[in-house]
What we know:
Blueprint: E1 2-7, H1 9-26, E2 33-38, H2 42-57, E3 63-71, E4 81-88, E5 97-105, H3 109-121, E6 126-134, E7 146-150, E8 157-162, H4 164-167, E9 171-176
Parallel strand pairs: 2-3, 2-5, 5-6, 6-7
Antiparallel strand pairs: 1-9, 3-4, 8-9
Helix pairs in contact: 1-2
The structure holds guanosine-5'-monophosphate and magnesium ion.
Amino acid sequence: HHKAQILDAHEMKRAMTRIAHEILERNKGAADLALVGIHTRGIPLAEQLAQKIAELEGIQVPTGKLDITLYRDDLSEISRQPIIRRTEINFDIGTKKIVLLDDVLFTGRTIRAALDALTDLGRPKSIQLAVMVDRGHRELPIRADYVGKNLPTSKTEVVKVKLAETDGEDVVELWEL
Length: 177
Ligand code: 5GP
Ligand code: MG
């Protein structure tokens, strides 16, 4: 059941604008930047960010996609293994500072798999991570460089990140399973 609304459309938009500024500040502009969205909702987030960076800097940064799915070989949480299904990166990552984009950061296993996939393609100058929501419960030494909202959750809660592009509206909600 629905427990709380965490971010409305305006708050999500402001968070993405702030993250765009933080990325530009930390990287001293948009030169050599590339954005890689993680399927499903990291992809529209990467597109939104590229558009915001274009508005702010007049530079169109390249974007790419990674499709990583959690594979369950049994019902226990511990054995969830992320598998890489598809990669669409049509630029040379060796010259890029890559910012990975995802909707929610949880155990860190998806990002670990994403780092593996990128490493197979080359050696980026650096890899940073931006997420809309960090819900805690990390199981690996992975953290986000840019966070829309830090939201401590219990393991029985889930965060619904809805985006206009995929869900018809922009809203972040907290649900109890
Ligand atoms: P992790 O691999 O860090 O355990 O989980 C992160 C991945 O699973 C992300 O790609 C994210 O989309 C999805 N995920 C994990 N927990 C949640 C959640 O509470 N809400 C949503 N929307 N996605 C989640
Ligand atoms: Mg996901």
